[in-house]
Amino acid sequence: xxxxxxxxxxxxxxxxxxxxxxxxxxxxxxxxxxxxxxxxxxxxxxxxxxxxxxxxxxxxxxxxxxxxxxxxxxxxxxxxxxxxxxxxxxxxxxxxxxxxxxxxxxxxxxxxxxxxxxxxxxxxxxxxxxxxxxxxxxxxxxxxxxxxxxxxxxxxxxxxxxxxxxxxxxxxxxxxxxxxxxxxxxxxxxxxxxxxxxxxxxxxxxxxxxxxxxxxxxxxxxxxxxxxxxxxxxxxxxxxxxxxxxxxxxxxxxxxxxxxxxxxxxxxxxxxxxxxxxxxxxxxxxxxxxxxxxxxxxxxxxxxxxxxxxxxxxxxxxxxxxxxxxxxxxxxxxxxxxxxxxxxxxxxxxxxxxxxxxxxxxxxxxxxxxxxxxxxxxxxxxxxxxxxxxxxxxxxxxxxxxxxxxxxxxxxxxxxxxxxxxxxxxxxxxxxxxxxxxxxx
Length: 441
Hints:
- It contains eleven helices and 22 strands.
- About 35% of the residues lie in helices and about 20% in strands.
- It is α+β, with helices and mostly antiparallel strands.
- The strands form eight sheets. A five-stranded mixed beta sheet has the order 14-21-18-19-16. A four-stranded antiparallel beta sheet has the order 2-9-6-7, covered by helices on one side. Strands 17-15-20 form a three-stranded mixed beta sheet.
């Protein structure tokens, strides 16, 4: 056992604006940031302030280390001032320590050594990090542990990739069912007429065609509260649910949230509360994703809340209609940097309007026909969850010596490709709040 200050030195180097920007990922450690994300381009004017992380250095987010926001830099790059960069000495394999630092037991220790005004704003500064004790296997054994875990990661990543491909195929079949039902109805003998929209084709003769803006009573725009202000975020279940894109894309119905706002946080940007029963729709990143809102919530700026006119449109039919548009939506979005929507484009979306009673029948039929696909998708997602839990347990056992891998030899199937390991990233990516600030209290 040694303190981290005996294993790592502190690197504070700025003034390298030509290096790529790095960011944290819960599952895949530190990676090169995707600069196609328009929102992320806002920080480019501050690159002179960013810290250099040399290849092999460990970088961690001071505010999110307790979640596993730590890893070795894959290339020379830049990290936010909200990060700490440490360079390993000869006796430390940074990949071994990246695995160790992300075990649940070590992250509990991080909480003990972090300090701040409130728990959710705690930071792990270098002065505290260097005092933390860590296991120190002999360097050859560290290297062996890393080789073994990378090989296991490759197998697990290939498993996850195959399961995701299965989910993709099941979802495609489900969307075909939805698309046919909301554009053609359930009665194949009904006469059709031109819809007036070339890419949608014909529609049942007794249906009406409209635009979404004429079918909703209200469109709620989201916003972003001031993340750095204490008192804006609630640790209590009594807080106001705050929804992100991930909450919308995770399920067809949003019934809870990972974050909650206080009333002061809600009022900081005059955010409206979207009522339960509205339909949520994403405009950035994962564009064109819809979900029905099951709880009164505030939403961020990447989401719209749509309240259907009760005399024209069922919320469930609107949800299925927006799902059917997924295959077309990128053609309707702005692509100057990445595919994005805005409120004007969403308002202009075409809308087919069957009679209300027929909308209800269509929705009931879709749910019945898609149940088999929903069940298969849920089972597959559970398998991915279980293999992730197995991975976490395996890493913890190996890096702490509970499982001895000194005699392990790689087989031909243990070849590790970086593109395979990318599949370890997934739905549980953390929100790296504070990455783009200055790291100060």
